[in-house]
Design brief:
- This protein is α+β, with helices and mostly antiparallel strands.
- It folds into two domains: 66 residues, Gyrase A, domain 2 (2-Layer Sandwich), CATH 3.30.1360; 219 residues, no CATH class.
- It contains twelve helices and eight strands.
- Strand 1 and strand 2 form a beta hairpin.
- Helix 5 runs antiparallel to helix 6.
């Protein structure tokens, strides 16, 4: 919410608004600031009362914001910006169809360009069916990631757009998706939930696809795998070239007997991309999902430090292009380094969500993967 909005043509008189705020908070002072914005100094903070006030003011197209200014608790009430005309969902479905197509083509290209699969281990497989299994696996991960965000927004009554899926070239076939929030979170709890729900859903989907890929893998003698490696048909890699979650799942799902190596299929690459998407999204940077989580946990100042750490991780692990991309948008944004702000930025994150914060860090660590070794 831009605090630059004035308070033109109020649907409530100042006294009526003062009375409404006074029903939820103990008022110390009430006045119109230099811009004509109703401003109230309050003595107490109640997360539930603020949410209730937000619902009451919504009827009058008003929106409250609660901030700590020095030692004071300041509540300001703004007119909501004019409601944007609902856009057609045609673009959303068009991008969805195109992205499904580009992911399918990426699966096709990946399968036929992997000789150890297309010419040896799976030479009798239907290439079109195998391309579809890749597309279903990868889109399932990304789709569930976005569904997690949408469910969190719906639970908290936030207005949002349908996902805008972004098509891309092989080998990935997509650059993910974007959901546009049309209303701000009411408090840090809602901000945390909207940030955490997507990576959590995507991570769980990645685990499922990883298990499937491990079960589909081929056990081959070490000498045969070494011969294929010399031809460049396979790569013998471990962490951090593959996510730690793969390393933990493999002995549980598909133990490798002595003298053998496990050759994974193209479905494993879909899981790898899913882990990559989760890792990049849950980094505590700016307005990424992890940025929402850290903003809810640590507040504005802590979020800035967390963003610096996240950018440092990106640069140190070879994702310098993504880091520069984020820096470009951060410096060009009118919010600068600030992430998404809840309306009530005073009430702390709930204890239960604070206990969930380490889970976000665990997901970050288990999903961590690099494209090239460092």
């Amino acid at each position: 919410m831009d605090e630059g909005h004035g308070f033109e043509q109020p649907p409530l008189s100042f006294q009526e608004l003062k009375q409404m705020v006074g029903e939820s908070f103990t008022l110390l002072d009430a006045y119109l600031d230099a811009r004509g914005v109703p401003t109230f100094l309050v003595a107490n903070v109640s997360k539930l009362e603020f949410k209730a006030l937000t619902v009451k003011l919504e009827k009058f197209r008003l929106i409250p914001m609660l901030r700590r200014v020095g030692d004071s608790l300041v509540l300001r009430v703004f007119m909501k910006p004019p409601k944007v005309k609902t856009r057609s969902v045609l673009l959303n479905f068009l991008l969805l169809a195109v992205t499904l197509g580009t992911i399918y083509l990426a699966g096709y290209y990946g399968f036929i360009s992997t000789p150890v699969l297309s010419e040896v281990l799976m030479k009798d497989a239907n290439v079109y069916f195998q391309s579809a299994t890749f597309a279903i696996s990868l889109f399932g991960i990304i789709g569930l990631h976005e569904l997690g965000h949408l469910m969190a927004c719906r639970i908290h009554g936030m207005d949002f757009s349908l996902p805008y899926f972004i098509p891309g070239p092989p080998p990935f076939g997509t650059f993910g998706a974007v959901v546009s929030l049309r209303s701000p979170p009411k408090n840090r709890d809602e901000l945390f939930d909207t940030g955490f729900a997507g990576p959590l859903a995507g991570f769980l989907a990645t685990i499922i696809v990883s298990v499937i890929s491990l079960r589909q893998g081929f056990l081959v003698p070490i000498h045969q795998a070494a011969a294929w490696a010399e031809k460049g048909w396979v790569k013998m890699v471990g962490w951090p070239m593959i996510p730690l979650i793969f390393e933990l799942l493999q002995p549980l799902v598909r133990p490798i007997p002595p003298g053998f190596n496990l050759i994974l299929t193209h479905v494993e690459f879909a899981a790898w991309v899913g882990a990559l998407v989760t890792f990049l999204n849950i980094l505590p940077v700016w307005q990424l999902d992890g940025g929402h989580i850290s903003r809810a946990m640590w507040g504005e100042k802590g979020h800035r430090y967390a963003s610096l750490v996240g950018l440092g991780v990106l640069f140190a692990t070879g994702y310098w292009f993504f880091a520069l991309f984020l820096l470009f948008w951060m410096l060009g944004s009118r919010r600068g380094w600030s992430g998404a702000e809840p309306l009530d930025d005073v009430s702390p994150l709930s204890p239960g969500r604070r206990l969930l914060y380490p889970a976000a860090l665990i997901i970050l660590g288990l999903s961590f993967v690099v494209i090239t070794s460092f």
